[in-house]
Amino acid sequence: MQTLPRLAALALLAFAVAFPTRAQVAPGTVLDGIAAVVGDEIVLHSEATALAQQASQGQPVTNELWSRALDELVRQRVLVIHAERDTTIIIGEEMVQQQLDAQVGQMAAQAGGEEALEAYYRKTMDEIKETFRQDVRKQLLAERLRGTRMRDVSVTPGEVRAWLEQIPPAERPEVPEIVRVAHIVKVPAATPEVKQAARDFASALRDSVLAEQATLADLARRHSDDPGSGSRGGLIEDIELRLLVPEFAAVAGSIALEEVSQVFESPFGYHFLRVSEREAGKVTFQHILISVEMGADAADIARQELMVLRDSVVNHGVPFEAIARRHSQDPLSAARGGYVSDPRTGDRDIRLEALGGQWKATVDTLSVGDVSEPATVRLLDNAGTQAVHIVLLQKKTPPHALSVETDYALLSQYALNDKRREVFDQWVRRLQRDVYVDIRSPRYTAESATES
């Protein structure tokens, strides 16, 4: 029986399904078989197992967790069936191809590179993509259908207050310092000479490691510009390849274990690395990052330009938002008048500590309404772009107990998420009445083999 996932919602789990980790699979567990039939589609036991293993985060899979995974897969099939019936939902080929490229690319990273993925499937990358094309289309149809239903779900102030009142006052967490900020950004271009100097320095450090003149860990502690790993000797443990930027994942996912890589470039700068463990889409490695510093001349020019813009705001009354729209080089905030929001949630109120040390050093010098002097910063984009900015502090809320008065936006998001889950569950249950569903294997045990 085919053991690979049939639905693109599980495409990222294809490698885990095909190669189950022995430590995660209990003796006597059924690795495949028909767990459920939904319409004319089947849900494989291996699909539910893979999804449950992912959700368990390395802990043993329980019957309850496996059953929830199976329920989720059944719901996905139900959504697909109804989405295919809805003639108003149209998914273009360009969108399918874009999603297909992204998912197969992540599968390749988890498998250890494109060659490893091709070897497993015994197909070329183009043929692998064709294998998943219809599944990707189904996934996008289901997501579009769900989006149209959830779009109109909202919460009232009363519902937000009721959500908080479910939590006893003594158990409500303390909210750390929250700020609302805007900024105007200039991004000085790194000169070719500066980029070459960074690459040369990284190459020299690599040569020292290869010649055994110093250890990678020692050099990382002294020279790496990665604040998250430098103090730990460049060590990053058990991280999913899909969470790394593509340039980094390509090297970490394909290099031989214990081999020191060539120097390569990512949006963060120049790296080299050594992988010690790689299994089930996760990798442990040491690396050194040498970031590309903006040239001193370009940075000085950026600071001078920002001082002129700051003077227009502080001394001549020009609205900060208007200048940000015209002059800021941060694409995430410029169109909104410089308003900074959490890139994951879109919230304007952001934990100060989450912004990082450079932001904190600047904001700590300001009172509400102040505009800072020019300061260096890493932008909140995926590349951590180095820039110079001036900051307007619009609001500051000190650490406090969670309350509707001070944290309405945060609470409304929590309440909305819960309400959406409830509405979605009820909606899918109604949809399911019009679809044939037969649960064949309800438990994560060997006995389910006889039920298949």
Automatic annotation (TrEMBL):
This protein's UniProt keywords: Isomerase, Rotamase, Signal
One GO molecular-function entry: peptidyl-prolyl cis-trans isomerase activity
Keyword Glycoprotein: no
Signal peptide per UniProt: 1-23
Alphabetized SUPFAM superfamilies for the sequence: FKBP-like, Triger factor/SurA peptide-binding domain-like
The keyword Isomerase appears for this protein: yes
Residue span, PpiC domain: 176-277, 280-374
Pfam families per the UniProt record, alphabetical: Rotamase
Protein name (record): PpiC domain-containing protein
UniProt source species: Rubricoccus marinus
